């Protein structure tokens, strides 16, 4: 498999704090990859650097054969890389449908086609009944679904999800996992940051562990579960005690 | 006729009635003192609507639109003086005012739009003072503190205001039409997305700087054109009137009173505030000692404290609340769970969960701030 998204030696410091210290990850096309690590290990910072929200001090980001290091967020999105945020960010004073259409802006398609696609995606995540409501009136879980849907409307090749299961109830977590699997089966590539180990282990084919701004190990979930460095650095006894999902 | 088509018919009827009343106004009220109210009110309807195209949609509060207003007035005065343009031919110079306003907006915007919120407001004020000082000091160009006089218009004094009234009405109508078009366009949606969360909008492909700058230039060009009309109407421009610090406060007050960000709000605000201030200034008990300004400040405080979103949105909310009393704000998804299988059920579960209930609270409080950035 070829890597569709790759970072090399990314360094990023905020004042005296070295958030990323040579972080290198690789995401193969058509896979669901996970990115885990303790709080403060640099996961969200790496997302921000990849998507242009933060500038890298050093290193490179490669996406679909091009170097996109420090490209502006709109250019990264136009290149085919969409993302969601740890704390859901929607447009509260636009309607749910208008939220969808913001992301469809760069597509020069007929208005009707765009609206239809937006409605189809809202139906896909189960909130099409709320299309005419202000997005600010949605519940937190519904906002998570809306954020996933409006990233999809522009049909990005790779989607970065920052804690998609964070703060949502177990039923909704299962729904989100189902939708991710379904989209992946249609060819979408995912990179997921998540603290919910059950969610990550059950969904991802490859997991990279970050610690102190650098990748310490990368491999399939079974390997991550048993890697001593991971257990020492992050997972600890809890994971050892967990029963495998299948 | 369907039930759904009735509100549109009512709106269309009200619109026709409003236009007819506006057209008939100078025919009914022929007293120049009254038509003067009409001309200046329409000039400020145009300015407030133009301001709203940029600030109301994007959330960037500009306190520097007097830069465009004054520059439009000065551009026309300087061009008419230096090119010896007389009579009604001066109106052929209107596009020049638009170009001057647009060019200034590009330079102004490239500097100011790099920052947000309070910093943006401070920069707009700073740029405003630079222009006012330039108008005072570039004497050979602007006439210094004496200002410029407009070319003579050979119109009968009895009906002098009437042509200006219709010109201002045409500008107001065109600006409102542009505001509606912007509101309904992809461009307008991008602006409103920037207002809600600029960084998120950028992450969804919105070229924020380009969008903001385009709106700023459009708004500046319109304001400059109506500034040149104002100049011809009052026959002169001076630094303290062309670049008046109170101008931007008035425009912002108009937008906030009527409803910042809506189409009708700034129009309503201008129709209340401008005639109101004119009337106050004609009253002996208010005309001295800046009492009218103090009163305006008090009105601003009342609006910000009690009707922060303005008359139109707040009134609309009250009407909606009355009409939907007893119904939930968000339709529970459980009833329609079949639509999307587990999706609906999950969303319903989320909506019913305590987390969901908590998460619904912030937007209401955010909306109550009126979107100030």
What strand line-up does the widest sheet of chain A have? 7-8-9-4-10-11
Q: What is the rounded Rg of chain A?
A: 18 Å
Number of strands of chain B: 2
Distance between the termini of chain B: 44 Å
Given the C-alpha coordinates, what overall shape of chain B results?
A: globular
End-to-end Cα distance of chain A: 25 Å
User: What Rg of chain B do the Cα atoms give?
Assistant: 23 Å
Q: What features would you describe in this structure?
A:
- The complex is a heterodimer of chains A (246) and B (373).
- Chain A has 246 residues and is α/β, with parallel strands linked by helices.
- Chain A has two domains: 3-80 and 156-241, Rossmann fold, CATH 3.40.50.300; 92-154, no CATH class.
- Chain A is 38% helix and 24% strand.
- Chain A has nine helices and eleven strands.
- Chain A has helices at residues 43-50, 73-79, 96-103, 111-125, 140-152, 170-185, 197-203, 221-226, 228-241, and strands spanning 3-14, 17-23, 26-28, 32-36, 58-63, 66-67, 81-83, 158-162, 189-193, 206-211, 214-219.
- In chain A, a hairpin with a 2-residue loop joins strand 1 (3-14) and strand 2 (17-23).
- Residues 239-246 of chain A have low confidence and may be disordered.
- Chain B has one domain (30-316): ABC transporter involved in vitamin B12 uptake, BtuC (Orthogonal Bundle), CATH 1.10.3470.
- Chain B is 73% helix and 1% strand.
- Chain B contains 18 helices and two strands.
- A two-stranded antiparallel sheet of chain B has the order 1-2.
- Chain B starts with a helix and ends in a 6-residue tail after the last helix.
- Chains A and B meet through helix 2, helix 3, helix 4, helix 5 and helix 6 of A and helix 8, helix 16, helix 17 and helix 18 of B.
């Amino acid at each position: 498999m070829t890597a569709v998204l790759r970072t090399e030696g990314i360094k990023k410091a905020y004042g005296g704090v070295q958030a990323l210290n040579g972080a290198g990850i690789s995401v193969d096309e058509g896979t669901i990859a996970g990115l885990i690590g303790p709080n403060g290990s640099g996961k969200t910072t790496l997302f921000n650097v990849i998507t242009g929200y933060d500038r890298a001090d050093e290193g490179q980001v490669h996406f679909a054969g091009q170097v996109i290091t420090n490209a502006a967020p709109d250019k990264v999105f136009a290149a085919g890389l969409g993302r969601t945020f740890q704390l859901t960010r929607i447009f509260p004073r636009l309607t749910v449908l208008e939220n969808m259409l913001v992301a469809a802006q760069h597509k020069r398609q007929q208005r009707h086609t765009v609206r239809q696609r937006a409605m189809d995606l809202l139906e896909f995540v189960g909130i099409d009944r709320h299309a005419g409501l202000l997005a600010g009136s949605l519940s937190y879980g519904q906002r998570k679904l809306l954020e996933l849907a409006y990233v999809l409307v522009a049909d990005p090749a790779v989607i970065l999800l920052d804690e998609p299961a964070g703060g949502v109830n177990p039923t909704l977590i299962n729904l989100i996992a189902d939708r991710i699997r379904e989209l992946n089966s249609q060819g979408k590539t995912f990179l997921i940051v998540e603290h919910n180990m059950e969610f990550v282990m059950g969904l991802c084919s490859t997991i990279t562990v970050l610690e102190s701004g650098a990748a310490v190990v990368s491999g399939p979930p079974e390997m991550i579960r048993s890697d001593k460095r991971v257990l020492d650095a992050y997972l600890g006894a809890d994971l050892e005690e967990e029963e495998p999902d299948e | 006729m369907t039930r759904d088509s009735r509100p549109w018919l009512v709106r269309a009827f009200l619109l026709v009635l409003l236009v007819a009343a506006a057209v008939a106004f100078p025919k009914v009220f022929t007293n120049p003192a009254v038509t003067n109210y009409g001309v200046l009110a329409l000039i400020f309807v145009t300015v407030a609507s133009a301001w709203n195209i940029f600030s109301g949609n994007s959330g960037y509060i500009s306190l520097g639109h007097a830069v465009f207003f004054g520059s439009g007035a000065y551009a026309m005065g300087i061009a008419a003086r230096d090119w010896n343009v007389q009579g009604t031919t001066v109106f052929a110079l209107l596009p020049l005012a638009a170009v001057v306003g647009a060019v200034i907006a590009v330079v102004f915007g490239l500097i100011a739009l790099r920052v947000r919120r309070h910093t943006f407001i401070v920069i707009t004020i700073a740029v405003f003072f630079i222009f006012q000082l330039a108008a005072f000091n570039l004497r050979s160009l602007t006439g210094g503190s004496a200002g410029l006089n407009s070319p003579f218009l050979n119109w009968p004094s009895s009906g002098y205001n009437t042509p200006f009234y219709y010109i201002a009405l045409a500008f107001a109508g065109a600006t409102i039409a542009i505001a509606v078009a912007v509101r309904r366009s992809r461009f307008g949606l991008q602006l409103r997305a920037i207002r809600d969360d600029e960084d998120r909008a950028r992450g969804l492909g919105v070229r924020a700087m380009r969008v903001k700058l385009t709106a700023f230039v459009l708004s500046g060009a319109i304001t400059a054109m109506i500034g040149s009309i104002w100049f011809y109407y009052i026959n002169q421009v001076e630094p303290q009137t062309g670049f008046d610090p109170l101008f931007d406060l008035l425009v912002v007050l108009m937008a906030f009173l009527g409803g910042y960000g809506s189409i009708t709000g700034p129009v309503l605000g201008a129709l209340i505030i401008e005639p109101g201030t004119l009337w106050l200034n004609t009253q002996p008990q208010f005309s001295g000692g800046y009492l009218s300004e103090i009163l305006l400040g008090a009105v601003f405080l009342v609006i910000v404290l009690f009707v922060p979103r303005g008359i139109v949105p707040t009134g609309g909310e009250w009407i909606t609340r009355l009409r939907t009393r007893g119904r939930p704000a968000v339709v529970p998804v459980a009833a329609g769970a079949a639509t999307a299988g587990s999706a609906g059920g999950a969303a319903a579960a989320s909506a019913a969960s305590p987390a969901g209930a908590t998460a619904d609270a912030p937007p209401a409080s955010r909306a109550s701030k009126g979107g100030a950035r």
